[in-house]
Design goal:
By secondary structure, this protein is mainly β. It is built from one helix and four strands; from the N terminus they run E-E-H-E-E. The N and C termini lie far apart (about 35 Å).
Length: about 55
């Protein structure tokens, strides 16, 4: 799988999970950040960094 793709899996509790590619997380300093997911269309969404919970 290319570095800019990831798989979404459904857990036993019904919640869907995915990982953030390491290069993307490091480039955007995502450790401890809160992300907001926004639907743009039926086949596209946007993710925004909205909060840094590390203080």
């Amino acid at each position: 799988m290319p570095a800019n793709e990831t798989t979404v899996n459904q857990g036993g509790n019904g919640q869907f999970k995915t990982t953030v590619p390491k290069a993307l997380a490091e480039a955007n300093d995502l450790d401890g950040k809160t992300l907001k997911w926004i639907t743009k269309s039926g086949s596209a969404f946007e993710v925004r960094i909205v909060e840094d919970s590390n203080g």
